[in-house]
Amino acid sequence: MIDYTPCNDKDYHQIFIHEAKELIEIFRNEIVELHHFGNNAVKDIPGNMTIDILPIVKSLSQVSLFVDKMEALGYKEMDAQLFTDDECRLFVAKKHQLTYYVTMIERSNHEAISRRLALRDYLRAHKAERLAYAKYKMKQAVQNRNDYKMYKHFTSDYILNLEKKALQWYRSQSR
Known about the structure:
Elements: H1 12-27, E1 31-37, E2 50-57, H2 60-63, H3 67-72, E3 76-78, E4 89-95, E5 98-106, H4 110-125, H5 127-143, H6 148-172
Parallel strand pairs: 2-5
Antiparallel strand pairs: 1-2, 3-4, 4-5
Helix pairs in contact: 4-6, 5-6
């Protein structure tokens, strides 16, 4: 079942901050940036009980040194290629009735980083697009409440088109 909770019903940003502190404690200086992305990082977008965290790391190969500590926090490393074609390390944990996705990307992989941050920043900056996206996602969640595959089918094209617009906008910004 697809469950969307309005963002203001749960303080996803505070949950992100708590988890970010845990990650910094583990990885210390290996993390050069840490971002909250995904639906719950954007005001007015209904949350889906997940927290998406993007640590930008100096070196992906160094992440292997910390797998035991991630497992001690309840994370399990997943095959990232099941979820993305980007070179990254993916850790998933289910705790406190939430699913945490930690997608680690090496700082030299600018394209993969931009893809994750562009949509978040675009939706934060464009209220009409943000509200239309939220409305579309809620409509699909209601219509496909018990069929996640159909929900993904109907939302993926919409999200890909929105992501293209967001990337164009993101690249046009002075960064």
